[in-house]
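Look over what follows to help learners.
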Amino acid sequence: MAFKPFDWYCQPVANGVWATAVQNALGAFTPCTTDTIVICISHLAMMGLCVYRIWITNMNFKAEKFCLRSKYYNYFLALLAGYSAAEHLFRLIMGVSVLNLEGEAGLAPFEQVNYSNARK
């Protein structure tokens, strides 16, 4: 289909569900490009913004620190963050793929990159 490193990274199936059922120019590469471009880059941008905010808060004493009204909000946000991290860890460790509609075993390399990037 394409050159070898791209085929290895995306692992498209020539006449699979993504190549036949999806009506776009990406065809069999649809889950790879969606996962890589949209999700992975969004995670990197959010991580960069969070690190920048932490750096600004620690270096500039005039910056206001975010404080919630109640500690229960903090506990709820910690529970949501823990669930999000646990879901990605479960998928990475157990090899459960959301985008695999062909019944192949294991995760494609683009999914492994995305799940390991989301853990950070």
Notes: The chain is about 65% helix and 0% strand. The mean pLDDT is 76. Residues 30-59 form the longest helix (30 residues).
